[in-house]
Amino acid sequence: MIAPLEGAVLLTLFVQLFVILSVALLLGRLARMVGMPAVVGELLTGVVLGPSLLGLVAPGVFGALFPATPEQFHLLEAISWLGVVFLLLTTGLEMDIDRLRRRAGSAALVSTTGVAVPFALGLGVAWVLPGFLVVDADDRLALGLFLATAMSISAIPVIARILVETGLAARPVGQVMLASATLTDTAGWLLLSLVVGFAQFGQFDVDAAGLSLLALAAFTAFAFTLGRRGTTALLRRVGTADGGVRGQVALVAAFALGSGALTAAFGFEATLGALLAGVAVGRDALDVEARRVLEDVSLGVFAPLFFGTAGLRVDLTLLANPAVALAGVALLLVATVGKLVGVSGGALVAGFDRRDALAMGVGLNARGALEIVVASIGLAIGLLTPALYTIIVLVAIATSILAAALLPVVAAKPEQRRVTGRRIRRT
Questions:
Q1: Where are the domains of the chain?
Q2: Residue 182: pLDDT band by 50, 70, 90 thresholds?
Q3: Considering Cα of 19, then 22, then 28, then 33, what sign does the dihedral take?
Q4: What is the rounded CA–CA span in Å between residue 297 and residue 107?
């Protein structure tokens, strides 16, 4: 018989959730007061509560609040990942599938160039990193492929939150940005599975990657045909019954979690399944009140918990070493410039004007918590040193903050920029 959780474990978890949510909401409010989306403050929550600040000034409090036990950490991590699942579900519900179909070519082009350029730069960086940042200075190929993959990805959760907060999710530029981020995320996790196999076994497992991609394609086709029609019929039936709003919310949440479980089983991220579930269901299939409940819970509770938890592993004290700090700046420049040039160039070729192309380059620069997950995998398989892990995590946070701060300004038309700033402050 499995023993229940100890009372102390649950107490610690509840205190953690209370502190993270409170600080995330406070910092999010402060961010809005200075004209930036709330996600900027929420991303800084983990840094404030982690070893970089709280662990430095009050190590006893930090140790009591976040005890170094796997059970406690994984409980918090599991709850925080519910946040990103619901955020991506909400984002998918807002996407116009007809517009996505019309712009599929543009999204594919932007995604291709947005991956290729930073991938090439990241691959080259591995050969110029100083030896103390590398696990094996004589074998840099696996590290180069890993860094190339890490530099290539974009964070759908952060991008989605920024687009929703700034009202860009309904615009063509926002729709293509989300579609491109989805394609980039899919390609990134496929590349990561190949790179991890190469790092561990010395060869690429092409067969496994191909099967994963075929399974994902089959599920996507099902979700947008039979799954869409079946879910729509169930939502209509539930909506006419007593407690229809609660039933609709529960049904859509179950669909998102089930879709996330399937994409995770295929070797991709659960977030991808949640996004596909939202797109497949569609905004019009839900009652207005059901959509409002989902949005309020996702953006008001779950998303701040997720973003607040994502930065808890960051240790800025490692940057006291000037060489580590210099390497961090170099990697940040490579990641930022590579993604900006790749995405903006692809958007220009696809026919977007310079303002929208620049907005895409800025928005898709956000690496967010997904890059932190990638870095954690690299650390776990022995491919990254602690210092290089910290650098990659900082790149993830810095690019997300820059994207959140700059995208509302870059994407707004010149005559709308002051209005956009005032609207964000009131959000």
A1: 75-426
A2: confident
A3: negative
A4: 29
CA distance 7 to 162: 38
- DSSP string spanning 108-158? HHHHHHHHHHHHHHHHHHTTTS-GGG-S-TT--HHHHHHHHHHHH---HHH
Distance CA 231, CA 250 (A): 12
What is the C-alpha separation between 388 and 47, in angstroms, rounded? 17
Check if the beta carbon of residue 167 is closer than 8 Å to that of residue 142: no
Contacts of range 327-331, beta carbons closer than 8 Å, 24 or more positions apart: 327/129, 327/130, 327/133, 327/387, 327/388, 327/391, 328/390, 328/391, 328/394, 328/395, 330/125, 331/125, 331/147, 331/151, 331/391, 331/392, 331/395
Report the C-alpha gap between 337 and 121 in whole angstroms: 10
Tell me the residue length of the chain.
Answer: 427
Distance separating alpha carbons of residues 37 and 403, to the nearest angstrom: 10
In angstroms, how far is CA 384 from the centroid of its own chain?
Answer: 21
pLDDT tens for 76-121 read 888 888 887 888 888 778 766 666 677 788 889 999 999 999 999 9
Q: Give me the mean pLDDT over the 297-312 stretch.
A: 82
For the domain made up of 75-426, give the CATH fold: Na+/H+ antiporter like fold (1.20.1530)
Which pTM value belongs to this model? 0.76
